[in-house]
Amino acid sequence: MSIETAEQLKKDLTDKYVVVAEDVPELRRFAGQVGQVRTVNMSGRVLVQFTDSVDISWYDIAPDVLTVVDAPAPKKKAAPAKDKPAAAKPAPKKSTGKKLSPLEMARQQGAAGSGGGTAAAPEAPPATKAEEPVAEAPAKSEVPTTGADGKPLSIIEQARLQGPFKG
Asked: In a 3-state reduction of DSSP, which class is residue 167?
């Protein structure tokens, strides 16, 4: 196919809606679907994206098996139901004497905040052992920051004076 023919096909078919002939076995999966021509490549094959599916791929199809059709009617999206009664929301679960996890308590608080109801106050965390004093880290051995001549030591020189790591 010549470049002029491909360019003419591109002008004629780009952004048009097409259907595929049902008698071609390789293209039977597209039967009944409307596709939109995205472009025509230089070998004269039409790149079609089918609008009826979730698939966003472009398919390389010969132009002789395509038929131009009118644009499909736009699909109406279902309007979100905003006027449902508040009773349709699930009510927060009442405490049954069981200890609730922090996640469950947070969920109850969130549900109570949005629904306007009151939720039980979250339980205090269980008492733990008496807090033990934290042992202080042993003091670092004093490493001089200045040399014998009074000049400051570099970080590497200070590290050398500390010696090897005694982990």
From this structure: coil
The residue type found at 78 is A
The answer to whether residue 158 sits within a structural domain is no
- Asked whether 24 and 63 are in contact (CB, 8 A), the reply is no
Percent of the chain with pLDDT over 70: 68
- Domain containing 14 — which CATH number? 2.30.30.30
CA distance 17 to 46: 12
Mean pLDDT (whole number) for 115-135 = 56
Output the DSSP codes for 1-25. Answer: --HHHHHHHHHHHTT-EEEE-TT-G
Q: Which of 42, 46, 40 is nearest to 20 (CA)?
A: 46
52 occurs within a structural domain = yes
**Joined tokens for residue 64:** 């002789």
Helix, strand, or coil here: 38?
strand
Indicate yes or no: pTM above 0.70: no
